[in-house]
Inverse folding.
């Protein structure tokens, strides 16, 4: 069956530009997570949605980062005024409920030049 | 705050059992132990999880000590495709985050 899909798989952008990263979760999964992974590090939590609402956004590093999930399915991670330090792989995961295991997508590799 | 301690790296001979340890001495009664792995350039893959009883599935076995302060993931017959970074994670029931830490880099040697 279809897993978590993330688009684009790679994104190169110039410093200062705005980017959007998309996540299509597994159908029916109510929980959705965004993580960021820098080279050589484990994934770092950014934000968690339960349905349409952000239940925990404590991992967002600053107000340049924002995420939405307007219909409780697809989610978009938005980064304003990108900086070179934002370069990383951005991972999305979904799960059927808060007590279930999460299934990850392949990630979007963002490079800010 | 990863709450777990794992060795940085391990080797295992192909066909042998790989035993990956994890310390979680501050684990709470309502926290599960999860294991994920990440093969190079892929997203993390769920392996197994447990609360206090040992668990087994088609991929691996999870052995949790009686005091729950440590656990071991066992891959019974390691193959070259099991080369990956393995993450041990503790997560509260109904919790909304998985804290990954830096994991153990397992290399299966032919």
């Amino acid at each position: 069956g279809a897993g978590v899909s993330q688009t684009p798989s790679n994104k190169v952008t110039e410093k200062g530009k705005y980017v959007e990263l998309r996540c299509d979760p597994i159908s029916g999964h109510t929980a959705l997570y965004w993580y960021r992974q820098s080279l050589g590090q484990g994934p770092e939590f950014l934000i968690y949605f339960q349905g349409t609402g952000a239940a925990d956004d404590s991992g967002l590093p600053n107000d340049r980062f924002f995420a939405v999930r307007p219909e409780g399915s697809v989610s978009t991670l938005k980064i304003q005024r990108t900086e070179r330090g934002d370069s990383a792989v951005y991972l999305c995961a979904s799960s059927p409920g808060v007590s279930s295991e999460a299934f990850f997508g392949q990630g979007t590799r963002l490079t800010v030049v | 705050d990863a709450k777990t301690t794992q060795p940085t790296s391990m080797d295992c001979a192909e066909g042998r059992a790989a035993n990956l340890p994890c310390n979680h001495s501050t684990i709470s009664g309502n926290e599960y132990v999860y294991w994920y792995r990440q093969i190079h350039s892929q997203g993390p893959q769920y392996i197994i999880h447990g609360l206090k009883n040992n668990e087994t599935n088609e991929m691996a076995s999870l052995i949790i000590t009686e005091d729950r302060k440590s656990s071991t993931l066992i891959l019974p017959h390691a193959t070259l495709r099991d080369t990956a970074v393995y993450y041990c994670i503790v997560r509260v029931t109904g919790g909304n985050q998985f804290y990954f830490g830096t994991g153990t880099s397992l290399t299966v040697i032919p």
The first strand of chain B starts at residue 9 and ends at 13.
